[in-house]
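Budget justification note: compute hours in this period were largely spent on complex prediction jobs such as the one shown. Inputs:
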Amino acid sequence: MTRRLSRRSVLRGAGVALGLPWLEMMTPAKASANTAGTQAHPIRLAALYMPNGVNVDHWFPEGKGRDFQLTPSLAPLADVKDQLLVFSNLWNANSKGGDGHYVKEAAILTCQTIKKTPGADLANGVSLDQLAAQKIAGQTPLPSLELGVTPVAIGVDAVVGYTRVYGSHIAWSSPTTPLAREINPRAVFERLFRASTGQGANAAKMDTLLLDRVLGDARRLRNDLGASDRIRLDEYLSLMRSMEERVQRAQNGTQRPWKARVAMDAKQTPPENPKDHAEHVRLMMDMMATAFQTDTTRVCTFMFGNAVSNVSFRFLEGVSAGHHDVSHHQKDPDKLRQYQIINQWHVNEYAYLLKRLKNMQEGESTVLDNSMVLFSSALCDGNKHDPHKLPLLLGGRGGGRIDSGQHLVYSEDSPLANLYVSMLDAFGAPVERFADSTGPLPGVLKS
Amino acid sequence: MVSSLLASDARGEEYTFARSQAFLKQYCESCHNDKAAVGGFRLSRFATEASLKAQGQKWISAAHRVQNREMPPKGSPAPNIDEIEAFTAYAEQAVHGAVCAAGPQPGPAVTRRLNRDEYAATLRDLLDIHLDIAKGLPTDGAGGEGFDNAAETLFLSPLHSEKYMDMAKFATDFAAKEYKPRQKILIAKPGEGIAPEEAARTILREFLPKAFRRPVTDADVNSYVALFQLAQKQGETFDGAVFFAIRAALVSPKFLFRAEPPNPGPGPRPVDQFALASRISYFLWGSMPDELLFDIAAAGKLHDPAVIRELVPRMLRNDRSLGFAQRFIEQWLRTRELAGDKAPDAKLYPLYAEDEELRGDIRFQPILFFRELLVQNLSLLNIIDSKYTIGTSNFAKVFQDRLPVRGNQPKQPQWVVLPDGIHRGGLLGMPAVLAVSSYPYRTSPVLRGAWILDSILGTPPPNPPANVPPLEEHKEGAAPKSMKERLSQHRGNPVCASCHSRIDPLGFALENFDVLGRWRNEDNGVPIDAASELADGTRLNGPEELRKYLLERKDLVVRNLTRKLLGFALGRGLTLTDSCAVDQIVAKLKQNDYKAQVLIEEILLSEPFRMQAVSAQAAPVKPVVSKSEKEKSKP
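Corresponding output:
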């Protein structure tokens, strides 16, 4: 009941823009410093999520500040070490308790405690990426890009009492709206291509006519429905209205001129069915890089897998089991060894993305200089299901605001949400508070 | 009233309300008393027998938390598994009895969008096009009873709105070029004495009710004719402009959503005929009603039990019911996961990885089996044990099972009689089930046992308690141990044993089946030992004894299947009063030899399925006004 009221009132209160009330609750710290819109080069924000935690023995570096040595799991980042922040001792307090996975993983970018439910009253918070996207809404053809490689996990986890919808979504545009992901690389490419090239004037005109009719139907249907049934219709109406705005914006070149910063090449169309997990992930890294390079969107999330993912990593030399199974190593040295190999593989993909962005020149700088790319897992040691001392990395200089090239060690149990406060500041979407934050995270931004 | 439904504990002693109170007092009161009320919960809520009805949902959630060992919290004195089970069984039965005294009540009818599969099937049937449209849409998560048609989790993203636009264009562009769809849709054309908008009106008047699954008004038709005219003004041809109007209809919420006219009250009422036609067709076909259903609805006959009983076999025989069987079975048994994390490892099982045909056979075996039970109206107990299965020549080749596959198309899946001594009767002899309840690289009696408890018996095992000791100590150079030896630790530790003695033996009984479901007599050089003893002393050895054991618990099995299917039919989680309808359906099944069609009929005739609760009133909602807006509005 509470959910319904809040969802409904939010829609009423906010009109078109879902999530606006939360934005307003988080009063801007400074008078709108929307650097993303005014700077020569836009700031991009991506968050990558790896399921199942890490082998802690080979993750956290020796040494603090600028003087630190990459551990075996972080070794693939050697070439971009000066563009990297490694964090120690951040945790996500609100994801404590509940169950071993869903509570942690759905909250990695929201820092809220999700509601335990098989589905009827889904509730989380608004995620980091969506706060950023809502701030710059309308400045790029796509507001944000949600990517993954596996379909939404099926069913409800009857044992713990959570719908697996939670474990399959890290991006939430409102506390009740997880964002669907695209998992087909070709579909992503085509979507980026169309968004960045736009459509002809006639096609746009036709779309406008069509949307007009659809919105008319939606309004009429809405009037015929009971109060509780209007909620879904309202969601639909608001989506279709933003679609209409998007079509119109693309038509009206003077209002907010957007131009692809680099043209996309149709010859680069990726295969529809990648041959294996490794190729699939790699193609998605390429899609993110392309999206950022062209400026088709500035906000992106990517899930290497769903919560409790048990993707087989037997394609890696020396690994004999699935991801989740290995993460429950029970201190078995052989499983720990395999766990580390799997962690390192993920970091290697992350490093690939950072290096691609680094090779994309943007004036005097590179796309990586103007990006913030978070690598995260919602658990520390997968065997313990604990959200203390989370494995977190931040790549890129955020347009020069990020003081990269450090291993930042905090006092135990410092809030992860503080990192998000700093990232949103660098993005140009500053907030006073984010969930349980207590302020910006010291050392992240250049003073 | 309540006394007649009393549960009993492991020793067969009657469990009374007073005993539940003693349990709560002993384990919960120190935190949940009137003074402390940790988490906002106080025991005084549960102090009277009347609370079983008035606070039914609270009782059930408290029982679940105890069952899952979330409560009492770590560090507090905890009840043992027998006490937990006796308490939770009592709570469930007592609440159930109290709530069902008034009979089943219809639940809420929630407006929901078509899910991915429904959307694709509806476009297919509406336009008569055969394309893999679902592939282009994001997959849906599941809610309620675990199905992806649950209204509560069918949320919308910007990605959906984009896809709806793209798909509508894609589908109409395709239909506009094909002979059959054109024949079906373009039933009029402009010509002598027929103005273009007149022809368009004829076409749309026929098309729109199908697309919106209910009669449309003249105003509805006019607005789409107007759109046709606008498109013509933009230079579209007659055909182009018609298909453009159709394209718009496919993005209309009247097409994309299943919305039912609200019930203003004062009491529950039979659901509107056209809404009921959609409920039935999306349940049994996963698609729009056909003309016959539409006509029956128009004649106002869909609430007639005799009509329903005639419809059921007809709808089940239709090819479209295959989609229903597939979506239900693949989610109920979770065999859909064979296409993901649960796929048998390609290196260890190249046979599976490399033979697409075999993969299809394996995947479709339980689906086709279930559908045959429905079409032939056989006993549902066939899911536990059966003289029949679905066979193909591939199965015979791979599983060394001499299935009597017939005819000149032995590769076609067919209904076959199982030879004696082949161990394959029922779902538990099927490779898809045996694979999905294993690790991709080895079998696991724990996974299989838990799978049976959850999917077949509907009694999922609780979470392991905190700080479980590691199961398998790694010892270099140790001789290979049998799975049973390795799992014997579960028996050695009383904390583990309390649950694993209920889980593992069910799985051990299937150990002769490898990951792909092939029969084996040894694993890793160690002979298979499929015998073990359940917590209650029952000895189980091999699949036959397991089937016998499950048949003795057929009430649980049938009840679980009924719950699942009712949840699927309603497309939402079941409420407490829905479980009263489950009781009634199960009773009917018992009287009718568990005939499969009886299950479908009784669901269609049940209160929750054919009735509609009073809609929530459009109570004035206080809009959230942000601080800045409030200040702005000050004079």
